[in-house]
Design a protein that fits this description.
CATH topology: Jelly Rolls
Mean pLDDT: 95
Helix content: under 10%
Number of strands: 11
Strand order of the largest sheet: 1-2-3-10-5-8
Order of helices and strands: EEEEEEEEEEE
Shape: globular
Number of domains: 1
Distance between the termini: 52 Å
Length: about 120
């Protein structure tokens, strides 16, 4: 019998999003609604879509590369080891300013669901 706390690997490969980045979901399950964890990969020279997450706080934890994050209209350089906390509903995007891929963890609380994503470029 499988324990109730066990969540098997999804086996989903990395996928490209309309947000202009690649995502690998490490943990995102209805059985664990408190949080989700993914790795985002942004190619050199690319800026992700300006967006906000309704009802979800997101944390970026950079593991590789360098970039410029914009949160609520304020920009900050990020590099490996740096983190940024993005409160629910706040506009955000990130630009890869390096020559290699920018990779960062995306820790969301509660967990990310597509319905929370709000594209802020549609009205621009």
């Amino acid at each position: 019998m499988t324990p109730i706390w066990f969540i098997p690997a999804s086996g989903l490969p990395e996928f490209f999003t309309t947000e202009r980045c690649h995502i690998t979901e490490l943990h995102n399950a209805a059985e664990s609604p408190e949080a989700s964890l993914a790795v985002a990969r942004v190619e050199p020279g690319i800026t992700t879509q300006l967006h906000a997450l309704t009802g979800v706080t997101e944390r970026y934890i950079v593991r590789k590369g360098e970039g410029l994050v914009e949160i609520g209209g304020v920009t900050q350089k990020l590099r490996a080891g740096d983190s940024a906390v993005i409160l629910a509903g706040v506009a955000q995007r990130i630009t890869n300013t390096g020559t290699d891929d920018l990779e960062f963890y995306c820790l969301c609380t509660p967990r990310f669901v597509p319905e929370c994503y709000k594209n802020l470029e549609e009205s621009c």
